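Example 3.2
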Amino acid sequence: MKLAYAFPLAGLAAAVATAAHAETITVATVNNNDMVIMQSLTEAFEEAHPGIEVNWVVLEENVLRQRLTTDIATEGGQFDVMTIGTYEAPIWAERGWLAALDDLPEAYREDDLLQPVRDGLSYEGKLYALPFYAESSMLYYRTDLFEEAGFEMPEQPSWEQVREWAAELHDPDNQLAGICLRGKPGWGENMAFVSTLVNTFGGRWFDEEWNPELDSQAWQEAISFYVDLLGNYGPPGASSNGFNENLALFSRGNCAMWVDATSAAGKLYNPAESQVADRLGFAPAPVAETPKGAHWLWSWALAIPATSEKQDAAQTFLTWATSQEYVELVGETEGWTSVPPGTRESTYENENYQREAPFAGFVLDAINSADPTDSTLEPSPYVGVQFVGIPEFQSIGTQVGQTIASALTGDTSVEQALQSAQRATERTMQRAGY
């Protein structure tokens, strides 16, 4: 992003020389709200680091993942900074695709990063990505609608209660869905939510011998519940709605309830961006048979591909965008509900954040209580709450996500969808040598 300033004549030559030798780094990121804010603050970064310019590539989540995976696997070298997550970081680090971040400046305060988030972005004790924001999941609901209906939100809601509330509150004539949930296919879209639903219904992706269990009774019950709930009480076109689409629906007042990422809370509580900011309640993600794995753990993070020829400039950007100073910059310019959540202890100790963000303590507890090493009722061989931490899961999760979306649209039955998903996953795992 090139900037135009009125320089004093004495400094003009120096400014021209600096611009001529500026190093341009290409940053690929997802089109989520927090990243849009990061992009809007490019000028602040470039002012503080006049030798570096930032070129942005901002993409929808599924497209971003496909582009980045292809580029890094083929050593394409298109990007100097990649926005990846808790799933990719250890897998890509093990393959040597990422630069280790083991020489961070002391002022960065690495020990201020939340331990579960830091652990998720590490491989063999080394950080390979820095967390931009982190999240768990939670239930958002309209307090005004609950009061009018005489409903009380318990300390821990169940999915059966959610279905009863959705049935009562659903009002399509007034463009109000009883509930909004992810339906857009993708391992990080509908399957992020669906995996936690399966977890709490007592299911798992694989048994301890790596045999897929997608045709199990727990999967059948969970997906039948999901298709019934969203089909009867969801918004029109639910199979096209991912995180961003549901965030827009809820913030406009078109959803009575929404179960999704805790990172949405900042925007929903911001009256400048949300029409329901003054009538918003929140509760833990609902449970069914077991609380295990009912809420997820995820971090969107910034990493440097090993192919980048501008690693010093890239690391300068990483440490700026994930620093305590950046959090304070966002708080001062965008409002404290808009700061990137879930990454630093200091954010949750900040009096401004505590005052403006009523969800702060709740989110911190949700992140700290999510356990990727023990997320299923029956033991499983994998790490991850809403994903399976193996390289093959990106293709498996995407394929299963498409079959679940087909069941949601009525193109196939739940039983047929799960049988198809089971067979496809068995083939993939056999080819991979499990």
